[in-house]
Amino acid sequence: MMTSPALASGPLSWQQESVVRSAATCGRECLWTAFEIPSDVSNDELISRLGRLVRREHSLRIVAVDPAGVGYADAIELPIRYARCSGPGGVPEFVARNKHVEFASGRPRWQLTIIDHRDPAGRPARSALAVFDFMIADMFSLALLRQELCTGVAPSAKRGAGRYREWVVRQRAEFDVDAVDAVSTARAFWDEHLGGASPSGSTPLPGVDDAAPDQVGGTVWLSVPVPMSAADLAAAARRAKATPYTLAVASVAATIATGTAEDDVTLRVINSGRVPDAAATFGRLATSTPIRLNRPGLAGFDVAVAEVRAAWRRVLPHQHTPWEYLRTVCAGRGVTEWEAAGQRQLVVNFFPAPADGLGAADFADKRADLRMTHVELLVVPLVSGGFMFRMMCDSGDLDVESVRRFLHVLADGFTAHVRTVLSEDGRVPEPRR
User: Fold this and answer.
1) pLDDT category of residue 180 using cuts at 50, 70 and 90
2) Are 4 and 77 within 8 A, CB to CB?
3) CB-based burial, 378-396: b 16+ in 10 Å, e otherwise
4) What DSSP state is assigned to residue 382?
5) Mind telling me which InterPro entries this protein's record contains (predicted)?
6) Among 41, 110, 248, 289, which residue's beta carbon has the most beta carbons within 10 A?
7) CA atoms within 13 A on the CB side of 53
C-alpha cells in the first residue's frame, strides 16, 4: 500500500501524451531491464539505494497517468518482489515469463524483483529484473537505474537528477504549440536543417511493394537475427571515428541509397531527448527527430558515415524537440496524413543497452489490430551475442513479404558494412543467405 495517499498532479510530457493516445489503441506496454547485482551489494544496501532514488525521482512516484495529467504520490511502499531460480537457463526463463506486468491503478507503475540463482560456476549469485510502465520511463532511464543501484553513485542535480517535473514544465514552455507562428530558436533550426523537406516525409524503401487492395491492415512485427558481435561493432566505430549508433544509421542510409540511387534521404531517429542539463533526468524523455541526409554518393558507406555524423552533431543540441511540435510547426510541408506518403517514413530505433531473456517467441512474427503511420526498424543488441533487427509496418499499406526481404537486406548491409570497416583490404564480404 502507499504510505501516503497525498497526491500532487502535473502536466503530461509530450512523450507521455503520445503514449496515452497510443494506449487507447494498443494497450499498455512495458519496458524492462535485467542485470546482475554486484556481490558486494547486499539486499539491504540495494533497497536503501532504491529508496533514495524513489524519494528523489518524481517519475518513480507516478501512480496515475491519463489524458488529464500525471498523479504523483508523496511516498510509496517500494514495489519489491523476491524470487529464486535454478538451472542454467533459470534467469532468462524467469525474465521471459515476468517481463510484462499489469500495473494496478493507484499503485506505482513499476516493480523490481531480486532473483537468487547460481552463476555458471555454480556459485550463489543475484540478479534484478526491473519492469516499468512505458508511460513513465524510457530505456535511458533504465540505464540510469542500473548504474545507481549497482554503484551507489547518485547523479548530479546539474545533470537533471530529480527534476522530471521541472523538465516537463520547461519543455512545454520552450515548445509551445499555441505560439508556433512566433520566431523561435527551435523553429529556425529545423527550418534550416530540413531545408524545405517535410519532417515526416516518406523514406524510399527499395523493393517494398504496396499491399494488395484486399489485404487486411494492422501492425506486423518481423524479426531476424544478425550475427554481428557488439565488440566488432564497437571496434568498427572506433576505426570510423563514429559511434555504434551512427554506424547503424549510416548503414541504413547507405543501403537505401544503394537500392534507390537517392542521395537525399530523410529518416526519423529515436533518441534520448536529453540535453546536457537533463542528461540524468529519470522519466519518459525519449522522442524522435528527423535527420536529413543529403550528400552525393550517399550509397558509399564512408560517405554515409560522414554525412550521418555531421547531421547528428547538428541535431544533437535539439534532440529534445517534441515530434508533436515539429509536426505542427511544419504543417503544410508535404502531406502528413495516414492516407498519403508520410506513412512510409522509416524510423530507426537503436537500443542503448543489450537485451537479455529474448527467446524464439520474441523473434516470431506478431500481429495486432493497431494501424501504424510509419515503418520502424529496431536494432537490438543481445546479451547472448549478436543483434536482433525488428521491423514494424502496417500490412494494409505494405506487402509483408517484401518488407521481410527489405529487412534482410538491411541486416545484410549492416553486417557487410561493419566487416568492411574492420577488414584490412576493404573488400565487402558476401552477404548471408
Assistant:
1) low
2) no
3) bbbbbeeeebbbbbbbbbb
4) B
5) CAT-like_dom_sf
6) 248
7) 27
Report strand pairing: 4-10 vs 69-75. Answer: antiparallel
Same domain, 272 and 385: yes
Angle, nearest 10°, between helix axes 244-260 and 230-240? 80
The identity of residue 290, as a single letter, is P
Judgement on whether residues 196 and 150 belong to the same structural domain of the protein: no
Given a cut of 80, whether residue 331 has pLDDT beyond it is no
In a domain? residue 174: no
Total domain count, the chain: 2
pLDDT recorded at residue 26? 43
Residue 14: give its domain's CATH number.
Answer: 3.30.559.10
CA 421 to chain centre: 26
Calculate the alpha carbon distances from 414 to 233, 247, 255 in Å: 10, 8, 8
Q: Give the three cell numbers for residue 377.
A: 526498424
By residue range, what is the domain housing residue 409?
179-422
pLDDT score at 188: 86
Instruction: Yes or no: say if 160 and 274 are a contact pair by the CB < 8 Å rule.
Output: yes
The residues near 108 (Cβ < 8 Å, ≥ 6 apart) are: 60, 61, 62, 63, 73, 76, 79
In a domain, 237, yes or no: yes
pTM tops 0.90:
no
pLDDT mean over 308-321: 94
How many Cβ atoms are within 10 Å of 365's Cβ, its own excluded?
10
**Which of 20, 48, 397 is CA-nearest to residue 220?**
397
Task: Return the closest-CA partner of residue 162 out of 271, 60, 285, 31.
Answer: 60
pLDDT digits (tens, 9 = 90+) for 18-73: 777 655 444 457 899 999 999 999 999 999 999 999 999 999 999 998 888 889 99
Does 130 share its domain with 191?
Answer: no
Helix, strand, coil fractions of the chain, as percent rounded to 5: 40, 25, 40
pLDDT in tens, 182-199: 667 888 899 899 988 888
The pLDDT, as a whole number, for residue 352 is: 79
User: 403 has which bridge partners?
Assistant: none
What per-residue confidence (pLDDT) applies to 181? 60
For residues 184 and 147, state if they share a domain. Answer: no
